[in-house]
Every structure is written in C-alpha cells, then in structure tokens.
Structures
1.
Amino acid sequence: MDKKAALASGSDHGATGGEVAGPGGCGSSFASLRAYGRALAQTPRRVAWRACAATAPGDEMSRVRARSGARMARALRWWDLVGLGLGGMVGAGVFVATGRATRLYAGPGVVVSYAIAGLCALLSAFCYTEFAVDMPVAGGAFSYLRVTFGELAAFLTGANLIMEYVFSNAAVARSFTAYLGTAVGVDAPSKWRIPVPGLPEGFNQVDLVAVGVILLISVCICYSTKESSVVNMVLTAVHVAFILFIIVIGFVHGDARNLTRPADPSHNPGGFFPHGAMGVFNGAAMVYLSYIGYDAVSTMAEEVERPARDIPIGVSGSVVVVTALYCLMAASMSMLLPYDAIDPDSPFSGAFRGRPGMAWVSNVIGAGASLGILTSLMVAMLGQARYLCVIGRSGVMPAWLARVNPRTATPVNASAFLGLFTAALALFTELDILLNLVCIGTLFVFYMVANAVVYRRYVGGGELGRPRSAWPTLAFLLAFSLAALSFTLVWKLAPPERGVRTGLLAACGALAVATVAAFQALVPQAHTPELWGVPGMPWVPAASVFLNVFLLGSLDRPSYVRFGFFSVAALLVYVLYSVHASYDAEGSSAAGLDGGGAKVQDEACTV
C-alpha cells in the first residue's frame, strides 16, 4: 500500500492501531478558504479522532521534539534547578500570605500551617518529578497530560496555564514598581506611573518601569538558559540573604510570649493554636499559594544534563528549602507581635513601623521583595516560554512558536512573543492578581498531573507495554475525587456545630481512605518506572489529588468565572484552528516528513 492509500485508510478508520491519519500535507487545511471550509465540515470527525489521541513518550522525545529544529542545550545541574525553584517560589506574595493566614486563621500556629503546606507541595512535586525524569522534555504538564489523557485535555489545561502566567506576570511586573519605590523611599505609583486622561479607570496608568523589567528579562532568557540560571542564582542568593536578615531581626527583637498571648485577650483567644485545628488547616490552604512556582522547574527538564539525578534533587530540594525558610519567617513574625495585632497586608513592615529607630527595616523589606519579584518573573517567563514552545511542537499552535534558535539553544520565538504580550498588558492594565495568589488554572493542572501519574502506572499502554482496561482506574479516580469534593463541601458548608461537622468530615475522610485501600488491593500496577517513581503509590498522588480538590473548593466565584471564560475561548480556538493544524501535522508525520518515533536520549543527556 502506498503512502497516499495508507493515509486515506487511516483517515477513514480513525486512530485505531496507532496509525496516523491526516491529509498528507502540512498546512493543507489552511491553504485556501475553500480548503479551510472543507476542514471545518470535517470538524466533528477530526475532533473525535484527535481529542483523545495520546502521543507516545518516545514520540515526544524524538519526532515531536525534532519539529523545533535545533536542540536546547543540556547545561543545567541540580543546583541550577534548586536556584530556579527558590526563585520561582519565594516572591513578594509570601509577605502578604503570612500576615493574612496568621491574623485571620492560624495565629502563631501558622508555622505548622507552612509545614503542612510544604508537605503537600512536596507530594505534588513528586508527581511532576516522575514524569520529568521518564520524559525529559520542555512541555511540563502539557506533555504529561498529552501522553496520558490526549490532545484536548492537554490543550485546555496548557492554554489556561499560559494565560494565567501572562496575566499574573503582568500584574507582578507592575507591583515591582511599588516595591522598588518602597525600597528607595518613593511613592512609586504616583511618581513613576504616567496618567493618561481619557482612558478607562484601571487602564489609565502607564507603567514604563514594569515594561522595562519584562523586556529586560525577555532578552536575558532568549540569550541563554544557563546564563539566566546564573543571574537567577545571584538574585535569589541576595533575596534569601534579605529574608534571613528579616528572620534574625525578628528573633532578636521578638518576644516568645507573643506565641501564646494575644494583644486583646478579652476579644481574641490565646494559645499557640487560638482557632484550633481548623484554623491551622485553613491557614495551610492560604499559605500553600506561596509554594506555587516549583512546577516551572519541570519545564527545564529538556535542558538538564542528568535528568534522573538532577530533577528529583532540584525539585524536591527547592520545596524543602523553601518550607524551612517559610517556617522560620512565620515564627519570626509571630514573635514580633501578638497575632491579633499583625497587619494582614504588610505584616513585617507593620511590625517595625512603631519601633523607634527601626523604620529603615521597611526599606530593607521593599528591597528584598523587589528581588523576589525579579526572580519569580524570570522563572515564570522561562516556564511559560517552554510551555508555548512544546504546544507549538504538538501542532495545535503555529510551528513558528516551536523553533529553537541554533545559536542560543533557547525557544526565542516563544520567549519574545510572550514577553511582548506580557509587556503590552503591563503597560496599561492594572491587574490585582498578586504573584503567589493561586489561580484556578494552576491548581487544576496540579490536580490533572496527579491523576495522570496514577492512570499511567495502573493502565500503561504504548511503550509501557500492552494497556490494561482503563475502567477500574478511571472509576477509582472519579470515586476518589468525589470523596475529596464531599469532604471539601462539608468543610465549607456544614453547620458549625462541632459534632455534626466532625462526624461528616470523618465519614468523608474514611470513605476516601477506603477507596484508595480498595484500589491498591484490587488493581495491580501495569508499569514500574525504570529511573525514578513516586513512592507510596497510589497514596502519594491520591493525597495530592485530595489537596488540590480541597484548594479548588476554597477559591472564589470570580476564579471559576475566569477559568470558564478561558476554557471556552481555548475550546473555540481548538475547534476552529488547533484540531485542523494537529490533523495536518500528524498527516505530515505519516507521510514520513518528521522522522522516527523511537524513544532516544540525546547526546548531551546522561542518566
């Protein structure tokens, strides 16, 4: 059978047998208006074939990666990844999150809240690490979901994640102006932003400082990933030194009695846990937002010299170090002031504001927060460019975005495009999304990756061997998610009477534990990772699923409205463009234009 006949056969019979269907020419769906009209008429058939089409890991590492042309340079080691993880997580938002969690929920017990949140972040990081070690490509969660649940699920989550990156980066860049002003004693919003009469409120303050910061970082990450890592390492080291200074100042000038004594005992309870276990866990849900950023490290997997060793150390090590820093910061702040006297919006600055001769500490905090913003922006922009690069490789976005510059070995096109887009938003738009205030897209991706690890271990398929029936695993994932959702709804909505809420929570928790235990006993694993795997399967990813469902339930209505809007917009893009571009790209692959699909290690990658 010749190639044309094979393509026609594949198109008629869908994705059976792992065959590739397509029109046989890259871009043929968009060659003319007539061709596009014919493509739209075939949309239901193409969506049915492509939406659940899962790519083999070997294809992601060879045939799909080859669409970028030049390879990214494998120049990162575990210490680079630890530095990138620290830079991505420890931003300005931690100052706000600590104050709010202490004042509103946990009191001095916020130290335990940070420890719990750090453990939960570590569980989620384990799920990312298993994928990143087995499939060291730049796509992060997009690639992991594409090889597990198919193209549509990966595209919707990836599109939401990139939009969240762009909007939050624009907001963070504008907040850099305010923190830099605090560091030098200037009212930056009024002095450094240019008002433009006639524009609507919220779009009438031009921030050239924010634009300059974004463009400068964009140039840096386009030039070299290794040099960007070095710059991040230097800035992160100085930022951590600022944080350690604040911690030491807090312990030196603090009072241990503030850990158990409120400022107003007549109106506020005392003790280390003034609001009990519920306050500690509510505080953990709030401060967990300060750990967002470690996921961007997984997008560096394609540029890591020894993935099997460096990625587990880099991702897990950064989470552990950040947890220690956060716990010390929380303890330091709790000693400076009683929990009910802490300013929830500026806890550290407020603690020193009334102390004679200590007003200069506010300037130090502003300088440290400014550095934290720079490192967070750099890591986030590195991550978002690699997400977009791999989305371009997959064929669902223009291939131009996937190109890797042969001289710099970086995805210059994706970096420049997102840098300009983010700078345009930051120039005019006042976005009230702080750096570490989690967005629903990020949590949803964490939830999906944890499910994907379980599915891949217990179903297998592709290069992992003959797949087992997916229904037992899918039934478990659905049942466990419903149990986690029930627990979350009871936590939020059950009457405050102690007996009622406690009983319902215990019942939901017992149901969740029983579901995992039954699944572990009845369904054997279909695949065991060769190099590194999540320990305690399926308990660890199940705990990550449970946590992310709980946190998703704590978000407000506007978050779901934004997520729904982005998802509908992404679905329209997929139906009108991406599914047809993907169909064409797979047709080119079937015609032999892309190369082989065997799983390979490139020359610079060592185990």
2.
Amino acid sequence: MDAFSSSFLSSTYILAPSPPLATPPSHAHHRISAVRIEERPPTISTNPPNYKQNTKIPTPRKSSPPPRQSPSPPQQTFPATLFTALDNIVNTYIDPPSKPSVDPKFTLSDNFAPVDELPPTECEVIHGVLPPCLDGAYIRNGPNPQFLPRGPYHLFDGDGMLHALKISNGRATLCSRYVKTYKYLVEHATGSQVIPNVFSGFNGVTAAAARGAVTAARMITGQFNPTNGIGNANTSLAFFGNRLFALGESDLPYAIKISEDGEITTVGRHDFDGKLNMSMTAHPKIDPNTGEAFAFRYGPMPPYLTFFRFDSEGNKSQDVPIFSMQTPSFLHDFAISQKYAIFTEIQLGMNNPVDMIFNGGPPVGANPEKVPRIGIIPRYAKDESEMKWFDVPGFNLMHAINAWDEDGGDTVVMVAPNIMSVEHTMERMDLIHAVVEKVKIDVKTGIVSRFPLSSRNLDFAVVNSSYLGQKNRYVYAAVGDPMPKICGVVKLDVTVSDNDRRDCIVASRMFGPKCFGGEPFFVARDPKNPEAGEDDGYIVSYVHDENTGESRFIVMDAKSPDLEIVAAVKLPRRVPYGFHGLFVKQSELNNL
C-alpha cells in the first residue's frame, strides 16, 4: 500500500458494531502487545465460536507451539545507539503520535498486535475433513512490525509477515515468518528501526526535517542503502512464472519458497534479470489461460503510471509509460479483460512531498474537486497511443474484482467496490463504506453506465481465478462493519442486476460477536474439470475470536446458501488481522 515511499526516499455470525478502531471513546481500555510476546495464546474459554449456525463444535484440548528461546538483542554500534537516541527524542518531544490513526495504542490494539515468528507447528482439525483440493498452502500476508513502534505508526507501515497453513492429506501445519526484506534484515541486525515509516513519519516541517536528518545520517554512515530496497512486502502474494512472490508497492517482489514441512523461506529480492528496477503493484493479474502476468507501477513523479507484463515463464516486457495520467493518483489495483487493461484515476492522490512536509499529514490525500476517470489500454500495447480515458464522477476504486469484454470488445464491463467518503481512507477507515458496482463502458460512444450490486459495506472480494478477465457470475466479498475488521463473507450473483436492481447477495456467513476474519479466497473443488460449476469449490479464511483469543482456519462450501463451514482447524496461536491471501496448489509448490 505504499508505492509513495520508494520514490519519496530516493528523491465474517452477526456482529454488533464494535467501537471504531481509529476513534474509540476516551474511556475505552486498549491492549497492545510488544513484538516479543508469548507463543501461547491468551487464556482460552471452553466455549468456541459458533461456526455452524445450528451445530456446536466441541473445543479440543489446548495445545501450544514448541518452546522457543528468544534471540539475544544484537549489540549496537555507537552510531546506531546515537541515532536511536535521536529517534527517541523526535518521537517523544517533536512528533509523538498525535492522531488515533498513527497511535500504536490504537493501531496495534487487540488482534492487530504483532506476534513473533512461529516454526512449522502441527494444528488440530476440530471439525469436518479438509478437502483433497486444499493440498498445498494457504498463505496470508499482512503488517507485523518486528519492533514496537517508538513513535507514530500507521497500519500500512508494518513489516510483512506470512502466515502459511500447509495442508497435506487432511493434516495442517501453521508457520509464520517475516518476509526477509532488506529493510527487515538491516533493522534486525541493528536491533531497532532504521528506515522511517513513510505513512506516519513526516507530520509537519519540524518532524520531517528531524527524521530526514537522522535518516540521511544513517545513509551516510552506511547503516542502510536505499537502492537495495526500503519496502515491507506486507500487502499480498502472487504466483506466476513458476515463482511465488510476497509483494508490497514500494519495492520489488520478494521470491518465497515453502518446504514440504511448511517452513517459509525468503529467497530474495527479484528483479527479473535486471528488467524490473523500480517498484511494482501488489496486485498483478494472472491470465488463467496464458499464464501471463500483467502489472504496473505508480509514483509521485512522471510518468505517474507505467504498464508492463510478464510472459508465462516470468520474462518481463518493455515498460509502457502512461503520460496521459497527468497527476499522481493512488492507484492500488487494476483489472484486465481479454482485450484490455483497465485503470482508475481516483480522487485519492499522492500529496506533493514539499506540501506534505510543510503542512503535515499523510503522503496520500483526497482531492474532492478531481473527477475520477477510467482508462483502458490494449493488453499488448507497445505505447499509450491507444489509451482511452472516460470520466466517471464519484467512482473511487481501491480494489478491482474482475472485468470482461462484451459486444466483440466494444463494451468493457468491470465489477469493483466504489469507496464512499474516500477522504477517510488513510485516517478513518472505520468511516469507509464500499458499494460493489458493475460499470459498463461503451468504448465507441464513451458512455459509462453504473449499477450498484449491493448496499452492504463490501471489499476484499474475489472470484474463481479460472474466470479472471472473463465474464463470471459469482463474487465472494468480505463484510466490513466497520473496516478494517471483517465480520463475515457474502456471495453475490452479479447476473441478478441484469434483470432488476435488487440486491445481488445470494448467500452469507457471519462470524459472530467479536469474531473477525480476513479476505476470503476461492479454491475450486476440481480445477481440471471443464464441466464444473463456477461456484463448485470452497471459500477459505482465517477467523479470530476476540472473546477467547483463539484463531481458526475455516473452510466454507461456496455452493451452499449459508456458506456452510465444512471444516475448521484450530491454530496453535492467534493470527493477526492482515491484508491479502493466496492458495497455492501442491503441484505448484513442487515447482518452486
């Protein structure tokens, strides 16, 4: 979520709404954990979440991971000690956390608190049987700061940690490991934070000057080299070119491997034979038929958008700079059809670094006077000459779901959540409401039609990946109430809106009071069967019960009207809330 940082430094059970994460009442009690916490979960009640609406799952005997010895902190050099002391002065006296959105007492409360790494640890299947199609690994990425923040901290700033559930023959093993980015390794060796938090570290001219001076001194004395990357790789994962990548928008991808016993290993920063020398989106799109991956990068300096692709072997094409996007937009995601790549220029943009320093505030801000646009460009374009832009007032996309062509390519259809009150994206996520819309673009006439598919607050939505870039029927979306916590999952039938304008939700599963999950992911029951239905498969996700401190991995039947939970795995310790996940088949893991 932080493409700005690289360029800047180098130039779901029914839920009763809980107090918003960013602005709880002043009398509320907040819990925060340091990184080096106990491996054993908090005291667990004997009453587990009601995962089936009419069936109670018995609670198994408690278990905990194997005992571990915490490593001794490294001995700091004099320059490192000096710079750490200066950081403490800045964080304590010059720029202490001034807003709930960057105050660790809020942003790292409850299950947002970080955890330590966990070696491969066997889990207990406490309900049902894990289907054979889940043999492989479900991996979820998310922020997990390795050091307790000494100053302002935004949710997007944490070090990437992967939580991988390796499944084989009905048995499951959980492993949690940091992505060993250059940033992580430098700070781990130093024993403290070295590279500043971009989303929360530059609040006004005094704070920016102080942190900038310390950062420059660290570079001059050789503590870190920004050309080696400053990203967290904390956003998502992708599998293409026979490689598995952990992704964050501020850096190159990091190649990852998962062993037979479930161990996670960071192979290293991957530049595709020197052809990718700048950052890349955390949401590349992989064509299920060709194996090609389509991607882009964006930033605060022209060209603000650059489009490129990889063939099925992972060989990168030439960049296609898009100069017709004339202002820096926060372009987190995009979509592809069989003919086009579809981008959105929204009201959320990158603040000018000079204005940000002198006026304070986050690197990303909203411009209510800007008219959002959708741009389409042929997938195999060699330049931007065929790029077309269409004004779409009030349409602010953060995550795309899918897109396809109709009428021989004369019409482009995209399904995506439209972020209402986009000005709250960075500082008041609890006030965000996302409405899933179907957008139709007549390429010849330029007419854009929009139809809401549901009034619910929905985001982090997925489809059967075999239908990516092609016309599909079903969408599985996370229910925010409020975001960033996810209280359930719903299934939408997007064809319902073709006949009338009623709500398209056809199935749902709520997680229960104070139970929250993550982004759902669809796994086909028999991906090699061309006769299988689009929804013939399972929805998987991690779910955490804040009442008991217990986390589980659940498997839901995607065809059932209530998304029935057919299997559940008790995890040996809690899995913090995070961002995006991916399921990788065993056959694909074998080829890494």
3.
Amino acid sequence: MISLHRVEACYCNCNNYGPQDPITMELEPSPPGLEAEYRTIFTAGSLVFLQELVSAFDEEVDKILRLRISRKTHLDLSGDLPGFCEVTAPVRSDPSWRVRPVPQRLQRRHVDVGDLAPCDTQRFIQALSSPAQGLQVDFDDGNCPTYHNQIKGIYNVYRAVHNQFPNAPKISQAPVLMLRPRAWNMVEHNMMVKGKEVPGPLCDFGFLMFHCGKLLFDSESGPFFYLSKVESYMEARLWNNIFLWTEQKLGLPVGSIKATVLIENVLSAFEMEEILYELKDHSAGLNCGIWDYSASFVNKFGHRGAFLLPDRSKYVNMEKLFLRSYMDLLVQTCHRRGALATGGMAALLLPQDRDSAPYRAALANVTRLKLLEIKAGVDGFMVYDLGLIEPMQKLFQLHSQGDNQMHQLRDDLTVTPDDLLCMPAGGVTLYGLKYNIAVGILFIDAWLKGKGHFFYRGQVEDSATAEISRSQVWQWIRHQTQLEDDSRVVTRGLVTELTQEVMGELKVVTRCHTVREEQRLLTAAAMFLEVVQKRDFPEFLTTYLNLDHTFLSSQAKRHEGGAAGDVPRPKL
C-alpha cells in the first residue's frame, strides 16, 4: 500500500496572494535521504500555489493534448500535409509587430550548457562557475523524472538562486539559468490534485516560480525558461496565459517571465511566427535542434513511404535541405520579429589530452558544424562538454559582431513547404541500424538506473537521440527497408538478432559486473524491442517509459530503499 500525505486547507499570505477555498492535494512522502530537501520545497505555501495553478489550467492542458490527437488523426485520415495556416495569415503578413526586447542578460547568448540535469549537484556547481552565458537547467530531455531527481533538482536550483552554494558565484554573476520544465506529454505520478495526476510541466514550473521567481527577477537574472515540444501556437497561447497568471499571483510585472520555445516538431515549424506572436511579451526567441525535430517526421508521417527517413548516422545532418530550411526559416522569423534564434547542442565529448590528434579532430568537427550555424545567423547554441565553452565563444567572436546577430534579417531567403518536407536521399546501413539499437537500449537502461543521459562512443546521448534511434528502427521495420550492405531486409527477426549481437558491447559500456546489472540491461533490451515492434507508433518514448510498469516498479523499489535499478526479470 503506497502511503500518501494529504494537504488540506493550507493557507498562505506570502507573495501577495491567498487561496479562497480549502484544497485537497495528495502527495507521496519523501524519498529516503531527501527529507530536508522535501521540507524546503513542499511548503504549505508552495503546495497551495501549485494546487491553484493546476486547478486553473488542468482542463486547458487536457484540451491541447486532445487537439494533438485530433490533428494527427486528421493528417492520417486525409493524407494531407502541413502548410502555413490560412487563418493566421494576417499575423504573418503584418510587418509591424515585434516581440518585447529581452533583458540585458539575455542579449548575449553565444554559448549555453545543455543537458544540465540539476539533480547532478557536482556538474551543476561546475556549470555555475563556468564562463558560459547560460545554463539549460534540464528537467526534460537530459533528466530522468524520478521523484528523487525532481526534488533534488528543484532544491539545487533553490540553493543556487538563494546563493547557498559556497563554491559557486552569486546568481547575479553566474550564467543565467534557462529553466526547462518537462514537456506536456509528461505527468508527475507522485502528486495528485482533485484526484488527477499533476501535469509534469506545471509541477516543475510552479515550484521553480514560487521559490525562485521573485529572487531571480530582483537580481535581474530571470525568471527564464525553455519550453519543450511545443507543437502549435495554441500551446504557446496556453503557456502565455500561465505566465500572466503566475506574474499576477506573485506580484511580478507583466513580461517578467521570458521563454525560449524549442521548435522540435515539424508541425510547429509552420507556426513559428504565430508562436512568437502568442508569447510576444514573454518571448526569449526560438531554438532548433536536429534529432527531436527529425524524429517528429516519423511520429507524424512515419507510416507513409514518402517520408522514409534514411540512416541518420550517414545521411541526416544540418546540411540537408529539410533541416537547413528549418534553421534558415527559424533565423529569418526570429530576427524579423526582434527575437533571438538559437541552435542545437554539440553532443561531442572532447578527449582529455588537449595535445592529442583525437582532441584536435573532435574540436575541428564541432567547429565545422557550429560555424555553419553561425553563418546561418544564429545568436547562440549549446554544448555539453564544458571544455567546448571557450573555443565556441572564440568562434563567435571571430565570425560575428556584437552581442547577437539580429541584424541579419535574411530577407533574401524564401522557404517553401516543399523545402521543409523534403526527405533526404539515402538508405540504411548495418552500422546505422546497430547504432540506433544500441542507443535505444542504453537510454532505457539509463532510465532504469534513474539517469536521463549517458555517454556512448565519444558523445552524450539523451532522450532526443533515443527518440530518433527507436523511431528509425520502427520505421525501417514497418517499411521492410533493405540494408545497403548486403540487401537484407530490416524485419523484427533481424532487429532481434542484431540486438543479441550488440549486447556484448553494451555490457562493457554499462559496466555490468553483477547479475542484477545484467538483468537490468536485458530488461532494457526487451523493452526496446517491445517499443519498435508496436503496430501503432508510440508518440514519445519518454511517455511510454514513464507509464510503463517496469520503470515505475523499479523507481518504487528505489523509493522504498531498495537498490537503484532493481527490475523484474527480463523478457529477452
């Protein structure tokens, strides 16, 4: 029997607001060892604030999720393709409107640190002391949303904003925190309001704003956010309403909250101007990233043969027309509306020996790819490796002028729907298939350990690369694609056979030394095969895992004091 704490009739007069009605919220008790963090975050006032926030917007959240389903169903039944919306044409054709200028600390966004899971205290402190302009404090792609990780992550942000880390700079002098709550597809299992699990992004956003929003504003360091997986301007409108509600509740001026929207879906690429328009008082610009965006093509059109995506390890990069057009349009859209345009994350890890040939090769590779983005007009991008911050900042200084590139309007550019929907030519290689299998399994294994990202073959992998990996394997099975190497057809049988082949390497990568660790890896492989063999494509791997009994039971055992990653026996 899971014990629940019930919070009833909590009243709080701080922050210029107080609830009008008694509330009932059900909340899981603290994970072992986090009792102090739990008491700090889950105060009576913060719980009342979150209950009111969820009550105000829960129905709207359900509505936008149903609209996603409706839109996908329409595309499937009609065979239509997305295009620029006629209803919102007046917004796009009106040259007069601009987003509100961002604060001074956001004007220069050359290099942010990405995939920074704040539950990792050591790396979080290292990043706070780095020369980066900003930190993507990630509760989404680079984070596994266990109860432990969410509480620890929010608590570490609380400590940073309240200047409680003795070896870190004050928040006004540290890189700006770009707080990234979970996306709309995620729920918080450990908290219920009015008998329903709380939407994950409202949980993260609510606690972060209650505890840190006013202090960040007063120190001219926020509150700033990244918004993940926004698919339409209606979702941007919902976020804008949440911001307005929160500013009023906490006594902040309108426009205090700023947010960068990640354009990670092919449908949102056709609504970038509308998304900026809906958030124009709160916009910190738009961001583009290669892998979630590419995976969205399989998500929305994967059953159509015309949208067969070739091997990402060989044929998919930002130089291909569909991705280059997406980045060009994002830069043009942002700059003509006075907004910042930022690029994706360099996932490569630098070897430790700076004098070695591998180090020089890795740095040259990152430099070449990021120079393409700078020349396209982006105002900044992300890196994972802290050692890349200064080389990439120097790259910006060499090839751009000023704090940003908003003067580059790209008026000569015309991007058509055909450009955005043009699949690159290419096939499927045995290497690419095995690589995708490995990344998918390793990601699930990481989640079963409570980790949101991992390292493989010299780079960091997170849910974005796991999404594209499992999406491609699913699509290649569905369309019975032939391998370039030997003309074998990609089938369930072949994928199962190759999964067994790669397990030897993966045991080394994950350092399996015990029966429990090997059992967990085998369970991850079985779950991966289950996902890629589904008749209907699971929309998000993270949603699938977050609702899966195997993952939930492994976290429940950890919550109850068992070993991290305890899992049921594998099916493979």
4.
Amino acid sequence: MEAEPPLYPMAGAAAPVSRDSDGVLGPQLDELVGAYPNYNEEEEERRYYRRKRLGVLKNVLAASAGGMLTYGVYLGLLQMQLILHYDETYREVKYGNMGLPDIDSKMLMGINVTPIAALLYTPVLIRFFGTKWMMFLAVGIYALFVSTNYWERYYTLVPSAVALGMSIVPLWASMGNYITRMAQKYHEYSHYKEQDGQEPKQRPPRGSHAPYLLVFQAIFYSFFHLSFACAQLPMIYFLNHYLYDLNHTLYNVQSCGTNSHGILSGFNKTVLRTLPRSGNLIVVESVLMAVAFLAMLLVLGLCGAAYRPTEEIDLRSVGWGNIFQLPFKHVRDYRLRHLVPFFIYSGFEVLFACTGIALGYGVCSVGLERLAYLLVAYGLGASAASFLGLLGLWLPRPVPLVAGAGVHLLLTFVLFFWAPMPRVLQHSWILYVAAALWGVGSALNKTGLSTLLGILYEDKERQDFIFTIYHWWQAVAIFTVYLGSSLPMKAKLAVLLVTLVASAVSYLRMEQKLRRGVAPRQPRIPRPQHKVRGYRYLEEDNSDESDAEGEHGDGAEEAAPPAGPRPGPEPAGLGRRPCPYEQALGGDGPEEQ
C-alpha cells in the first residue's frame, strides 16, 4: 500500500531524498547537516577573542570615564559650595542664622572621619555586591551627595556627607581591583592559543599580565587626574564672574608660602562682589547632577563583570568571618608593611596639592580668581604624566615610583624656602610650573603604586583586600591632614618631607628583600564552602583555587570521590527529588535502562 502524501507540503521543500540500495540517505542529507564548507574554525576563534579584547578595552574606558566624571563633579561642587558659604554676605542674605559654617565643618568631618572605619566593612561590601555593583552603588552615593545641594540644610548635607565618606574607600578599592582584573582578562584573551595546551588548573606565569596592567593603569589615572581640571569648569564659567579681585580679598594678608600659618589667615570674609541668583545656582547644580547620573549610566551599562558568576560565588563562599579578618591578616606580609609609608604619603601629597600649593602658595599670593587655573595646571600635568608610567615596560620596576618621589622631594625643598609676596603677579608663572610638576610626581606615584600592587598580588582572591588596605591608609592620611590643617606651613612641609624619605627608603628595602628571594608570609585563603550542589561544584577539580592551595593543600577538603557508578542503591536526594508520579509508584527515581 502506497504512503499518502502529506496534507500540507512544506514551503520550499526540496526534491525527494534518494536512497541507495541499502536504504542509506544520499548526498542531500550530507549537504543539509554537514559542516559549512567555508567555515574556518581558527578564523572564528580569532574573531571571538578579538571581540573579547575589545570588550575589555570598553570596560577600562567606561570605568575610567565614570571615575573621572564622579570625582570631578564631587570636587567641583564641594569647591563651589565652600566658597559660597565662606562669604558673610551670602550666608546672611540667603540663609540668615542657620549656621552654614557649622554645617560645613560637620560635613567635612563626615567626609574625612567616616572612612577610618572603612577597613571593617569594605571587603564585606565588595564580596557581597560584587566589584561592578559596588562601583555602581558608590557612584550613586556620590550622586546622592550632589542632589542634597538643592536643599541645603543640616539634615540633608550632613547625612549625605557621612554616606559619601562611607563610600570613598569601597569605590576606589573596587576601581583598582576592577582595572587589575581587566588586565588579567586581556592577557587571557590575547594568549588563548598558549592556554589550549595547558591543563585546566594551570595558571599563566607570574607577572605575565604586567604589560597590560601598566597600560590600563596609565589610562585610568590619566582620566582620573583630568577630574581636577574638569572640576574647575563651574568655577571658570560661573563663579569667577562674581568674585572680588585680589586687592580686596588679600587686603589683610601679610605672609604667604612657607611663612603662612593655617589656611589663608587674614583672608577677607567677603569674596563675592555680587550674589549669584538662585535660578543660576539651580542650573549649575542640575548640570552637575546630570553628569553624576551619566557616570552612573556609564558604570551600569558599559562596565562588564570583573569575575565570572562561579568566581563571584567562590569569593563569597569562603565565609563572611574570614572575609572580615583577612585584611588584618595580610599585615603579616612584609611587602605590605614596607609599602604602608608610601600609602600614607600618597594621601598626603594629594591634599597638599589642593590645600598647600593651591591655597597656601597660590590663592594667598595671586587671589581666589586664579585658583581654578592652578588646579587645571595640576590636573593636566598629572594626566599627561600618567603615561610616563609606561616607562616601566622598558626600565626596572622601581624607576617610575622613585622618580615621582624624587620630583616631589625637589619641589618640597624649593617650597620650604620660598615665600611669595601677597598681591604680586610677577611670580605667578612659578606657581603654575610648580603645580604642573607636582602633578607629574602625583601621576608617577599613583600609577606606580597601583601597578606594583597588581603585580605583587595577582591572585584574584586577594586583590580586593590589598586595594582596600591601600586606599584605607590613604583615607587615614587625609584624615590626619584634616586634623592638622591649622599647623604652620613649615610643619606641614617637614611632615611631608619625612614621610616621603621614609616611604622611598622602605620601598627600596622591600625591593632588596625580593631580589634576595625572601618569601612573603601570606595568609591562607580558605577553600569555598558551598551550601548547594550545582553542576559547577560536582567537578573534581576546583579551577578557582589559589596557587598556594593548589601546591600545598594544607587544611584543604578531602578529595572528591572518583567519577563512575557507586556500589549500592543511589539515593534520590543526591541527584534530584523524585517527581510525584515516581513517588506514587514507590520508586526513588527514573528506572535504569
């Protein structure tokens, strides 16, 4: 009996498939399901990893631009706010007896004091939210601080300043961790052919990602230091039109530079020639708010994840108690102990650029209307000099970091003996040169330290702890500068000089120990303890374990049993629960074939 034709023939159906004498389908089936004749596996693989590398570059640029916009908005708003609140007439006309100076002092206290506790919660927050989402959350808190300036009251400014202070260390620690991870990923995607012949557990050689890390850190800090220049745009295009000239603001100033005491002693209490209209202030703050929101969108939409989902789970599964303790346990490592003076100096020198050079030497002698241009010179000099960190590709590792310290040492000696005269503009070019050169030293310092930490600690289980310690010590140094703001300039320069020399000597001592082969004492990272059984965790090998665990394995979990059928009946709970139909039949699972 012949088979009936189908009721609904397929549109565009081909001719009937022929069969040979044995009933085997002919060449039509081979043409249908066979390999694409023009498919080139190596070319497709090359294109795939090229897209991956471009994605990493996109992540680095987005994170750098987001950090630049965030910090630029914060600095610009804080600078404009403090200048407006300093003016007596503005306070009396706008806010009466509300006590703006007292609010400003408590706001600065919240920004500078709160990060002291950051070592207790930063690693926990980074592991809980993940690196990317911690960056997004911290940028959102910066945007919250900007939004509170629409309604300047004690209950808006002070709580937002405290929240901002809590997010400072998590933001920059997660940023440093993120850039380091991107360098490691870029190396992985660039050398994918070398990894084909390696075992799954084998990691790339130590320091193999260092060239990419140097480039990425140079890009990041070039963007970051541009924030000092971008922060001056509200000052240049808005606030400078309302300021008195230097003959009025510096009328009672007697000494500047190394002979000054505190911050701008004798500065006039009225600096605004006319008061800015409230509508204009709202427009400026709205622009800053829009830029802060743009930074949030950059981090949210363009920054990819720093870790794979399974790696994120492993990082959290070591135990929250261990995550809390590990930053303190890393103090055993002599490399970190030797770098602590450099961490402290890194916080000192940034604050000295903004308060010492810009205010004590710059505004004190050439007037408040030139403050923005001094900070622009500092920011542009630091941004351009960030690429000098690429010299580490050809020179020995200590050269960029020690060169930055040498530039600052020379400038500190010059500033120690220089006292510019108030209301004299002939030496203004010296101030711009000094600000730009200080920016060169700052760029070499920041780029060198972050690159060094990424090279010394390339295990992904430790990077968030290390960058947390680095930025926490920076926050401690900034808090110390905040407490000593009323000291004479010579005392500030002396502290800066002693810290700089101690940090350089300590760092060179660390490099000497490394050359001698002294092994650092690192705390052991516990193995992940998973509470669920997923497909990823039934594998015999843990591909995310650290090198120390893979080599020594002390205190590790017992080895997984070999794969294969086990003797005796298989319990139902090990694979999956039996469905209701199987339970009704009285069985533990699907029947074995």
